[in-house]
User: Fold these one by one.
Assistant:
Number 1:
Amino acid sequence: MSKQTFDLAAQGLRELNSTLHALNGQTNQTAWDIINPKGSHAIAAGLDAPIDVTVHGSTGYYCAGMNKHATVRIKGSAGPGVAQNIMSGAVIVDGDASQYAGATGRGGMLVIKGNASSRCGISMKGINIIVHGNIGHMSAFMAQSGNLVVLGDAGDALGDSLYEARLFVRGSVKSLGADCIEKEMRPEHLELLAELLRQGEADGKARPEEFKRYGSARKLYNFNIDNADAY
Amino acid sequence: MTSEFPHTPPRKSYTFSDAVNAEIRRAAATGIYDIRGGGTKRFLPHFDDLLFLGASISRYPLEGYREKCSTDVWLGTRFAKKPIHLDIPVTIAGMSFGALSGPAKEALGRGASAAGTSTTTGDGGMTEEERGHSKTLVYQYLPSRYGMNPDDLRRADAIEVVVGQGAKPGGGGMLLGQKISDRVANMRNLPKGIDQRSACRHPDWTGPDDLEIKILELREITDWEKPIYVKIGGARPYYDTALAVKAGADVVVLDGMQGGTAATQDVFIEHVGQPILACIPQAVKALQDLGMHRKVQLIVSGGIRSGADVAKAMALGADAVAIGTAALIALGDNDPALEAEYQKLGTTAGAYDDWHEGKDPAGITTQDPELYKRFDPVLGGRRLKNYLKVMTLEAQTIARACGKNNLHNLEPEDLCALTLEAAAMARVPLAGTDWYPGKGGF
């Protein structure tokens, strides 16, 4: 097994993604370095193999979109929609992430070592997201399932119209969105949080007891005219 | 003495009609807007207001039962490595599993495949019923992303990025808790029995520049194989079509306000959007101005009922059409044979639109096993195939009468309008004149 290097500036996006798609789990080329990403969009989108990909630099929109099985590490910051609709595997961003990080993710893990912008975890459907810094407004909007862990602060309208996703925030929450409430942190949540912090490379940075848990009040699950003022 | 004077008969207000007053009373009693399925029920200028001129001395016709008139269409020829080839230009519009039963989706696949055309998923992901029975399946990419996954993207034949739909341009979806069975809930990653709101905007892109990047991502994930459609509601068709083309669409799907929905507020269905007759010329103009007419294909929908409608839509510049409501009626929706059951639901055949309640006696718009097992997907598929074939034969009949050996050769010059409104919207001359409102020189 040898480490493969791909120069994106020289070889182009189409060549990169078709090369990575062709691996399809039947390969000994399991480690890839992508150099000169220069903010390109859709880098390593649609991977479907248990490979390790390291992007040396910052990425544009939708890096590692719809990822399955692969581990993608971004040695820089990520543009909008990083790891959107991820199915499995992991995406780790060493820097900051722009809007919609982990949007609609259905599984796997997204780790953001810096801050995440607005709408982090929007409509998430099973993904685990661990943000070492802060997250912006409208994060976890209509989040369905999965876990969002924030070591820093959360912006306005956290968890608006939330379904069954669990939100853990260590710092302040500027405001909660419609139907999102603080909930009791029970032992099973502390246990879960400890595991998520470990997986998210944050176990030395925070203790589970320092977090508060937020979830859905479930008052808006079936339309009731008496709740119309909530919107 | 008073009896000598004529009595003024009771006179009801046009403004405050019985229907209006009933709705006021209903709103006052319930405190909630009316939700229903289907499309607009109001009168609108439509294809009925257009006529074909036919051939005579200046143009000669083709023999009705002998001479070839092609009906096939290629979709997605702009960028996709694997464009779609359909035998007929009538496709089945997106309708979700959830809104429709599994057997109904199967019937759509069976009927469409037998007739040589495509079906489309909906806001709930791809089911085995429809993938298995659809030779050509278009996979919708919706704001909710319910069930979205790369495997289904890759086993689809085309991808349709849904920006809007004609019944509710600017609105999201709604599937009320009554229809959220275990299977529907599981496909959508949500608890059983709760109302499912589908967002009106996509979660990870906003404007046309973002859409261009989103389309790039979808192409990369699918290795540039699949045609990518962009579906828009009839809001601002000129600009929306131009922006979809700019964003890289292979196909634009344009849905007028007659297009149906599984469930939305009645006020939205009846008061937002434009009739398809007004939408088509605007979209065609946008394509022509960009030099992309026939290069980016245009599929139109919303109130298509017959081969005449198909031919008129194509004469105005569409490459193909899509049907939703008409397909459901072909399957058996609102059939007078079920009148006794419609009466029990407080309605009548032809008016039943409470699809969101999941009590459809035809077994089509329901998730209740007792109801949907009444529906025979094999028979339903056969009925749909028959209907699609009839529409195609009708369109061919008209095209031959206009001297065309291909449905795509129909043109606006084959048409005239019966009303000023239709002339203005369709941009074809009022019958007996060479003029339409808005045409230069007046």
Number 2:
Amino acid sequence: MYNVWENTLAEIEQKISSGNFSTWFQDTSLLSTEGGHIVIGVKNSFFIKQLRSKFLDVITEALKNNGVEIKDIDFEIQTKSKSKVRPHEITEPTKLKERLSTVKSTLKSTKSFTTGLNSKYTLDNFVVGSNNDLAVAAARNIIDNPGTNYNPFFLYGGSGLGKTHLVQAIGNEILKKHPNLKVFYTPVSDFYADFVDSVLKKKGKDFNNKFRSIDVLIIDDFQLIVNKEKSQEEFFNIFNNLHQLDKQIIVTSDRLPSQIKSVDERLANRLTWAGAFDLQLPKFEDKCAILRSKADLIGAEIEDEAIEYIAENINTNIRDLEGELSTILLMSDVRGLTPLQLINNGSVKVSHVDKLRPTSPKRIVDRVAKYYQLSTAELKSKSRVANIKNARQVAMYLLQEELSLSTTKIATEVGVKDHSTVMHGIKKIQNDLKLNFVLRDQIASIKESIYE
Amino acid sequence: MEIEVISDKLSRALSNVSRIAAGKVTLPVLNNVLIKVKDKKVSLITTNLDMAIIDFLPVSSSKDGVITLPAKLLTEFISNLPKSTQVKVSSKDTKVTVVADKYSSTINGSLADDFPELPEIDEKSAVAFSMDVEEFKNGINQVIIASSNDFNRPALTGVHFYTNDKSLYIVATDGYRVAKKKMVDNVKSEIKVTIPANTLQEVLRSINDEMDEIEISFNEDLVRFRLGEIEIISKLIDAEYPNIDSLIPKTSEINIIAERDELLRIAKLASLFARHGANDAITCETKTPDTFSIHAIANEFGENDSIINTKVDNEGKITITSKYFIDALSVVDSEKIHIAFSTGIDKNTNISAPMVIKKQNSDDYVYILMPLDS
């Protein structure tokens, strides 16, 4: 029946102006032809009136040419006229909202379904600070009303900033609150492996059904989907299916989808439909809070000064921060000194520079120039043109950040006269970084190219 | 087609109808206004296919005929003419001449054949009632603020009109708050329709001081508003409206009465901070015997605490979205406001107990506001 209407529309399109066609026939559908009583679905009564008074002849003729027997033609209003005729949507699974309400009556959890979640990740042991409060607020909203506001929930940030922790915590809390929902967590690599497996064993249908029955799907480390086109396509289908049913989808990645190579543009757009939330590097106070809560969790004693010392010197990520804390605590256990004593007598040396792979000032300047499509000479010139000046400041910032060079040394590297210009430049970039997401992404990709 | 009319009158009629005639590119005729003269009756018509606005224009002289003209151009031309000038609009084929005193222009119109015919309400089967225009305007203004603009949930983009126990209520919700108002007592027929919020906005804009009654008629899929010379026809939203009444708590643990202006002031002060924080959140807290306070915090900028002294029956606190709170306070038509809330889960509805805002000693208008988790 659907095809008959497609053909009929094609014929009508030939006969009337394209403006009229796209306005009046766009959302129509053929609902019934039984016994010659034709019923056509339309958007609202404005359309009924117009189709009946101006286009009835055209419709009748086109239907006849397509072999449809006609006694009379009637119109009916269909809010989403097309969806009613597609066969696979008739058997659509229940919507999330309906599930939520039925859940309340049957308060027994389905134990047989494995979630892939690790129960040690909870929201209570996730330290909230200004670097992640937005993402956490959204997460809480999702826990209360999965599948409504932040769907899909796209979370991104560098490694070791707590992405996995946060999304696993969402999964765990949703299970706690709505025990009958099916929550499934999978790193994208497992998703890929599963998919390949299902293709090899020719069980593509099972794979599809498995995912389509899920209420909350959590995909971790999405950036690893690079170059796996078939998996991506499959994910795209699953994504669409789940999203249409208002099922909650949660995706993490270390960068924005548009920056992941070879991710289909449509998919990239869809992933950030409901906004993208980032986890940033923690600020000094946040780092202290993280260390304190971690130490309390282990039950170890550590002085505030020692915590401040670690917080001040680790600038990479939370994983390193916690690693350093463990090392110091272990040492203090072995040597019988408090962490602060260890630091003061020089047994512990923390320096973030050690954490990075070696690079050179020249390489940094080259890469910055290349990124902004300037020559190194241009970057080092005295030009005050905005884009060159900006590139120069980024170079200063990176020299300081990556190599901890003195401002005087930086001045000679980028060809400015004195160190105060450098200080100003670095400060400007630091300030801009707080609000300017484009700049943040630019610097991240320059860094990547530096350590390529 | 020919009409002669005073420029002010034509200008006002055009500005009434021309607002919705814009933006459709697929069918250019929808950017036009249809001028129809039949038996001395002149009507100006525009439509965007969700609704249509018709203005019946009284004229000094006319000749029968129909023509469509670019609505924006014509409206702007007429509105820039000096006041109280006699304007003559006449068409020959698709060329339309507009002459007013020393000013004249020729506008390329198009034939009315492409202009959609409008659906009509069958007077016999329709449900109709009329009410005072001011009351209508107030009621809609109080409720429409809670409607949603998320077209994924079409029902919520409208205002729901329904009868319960012979009274007509209107209600709107976006999922975070609900506004409900009792409009008319003693309604004879059953009503259960959802009118698009956009349509109601247009109706509100069309209201002017000279009007005193609005007549509303419904049938299955259409609604018609009649306001003086203006008639607005719109589709109804064809989607099940959620049951709102079960969400409204019958009693609350904490009840306070406060001056509206004072509440509005401290809410606005708090929102200056709240808008920088997560969720635009403010926390309301009561302390016996007589303190109601609002607290808001913005990590970067600082925080705010304001207090109102009023009788408090129980202690408790609730975190809510400041914008939604201010929205409600700005529309309640009463000097004294009754605020009620509970902490924790409402036993009847099994959801976090919402805040209720209404007039003192009156249930005519109820606004409920879901708490944020904190």
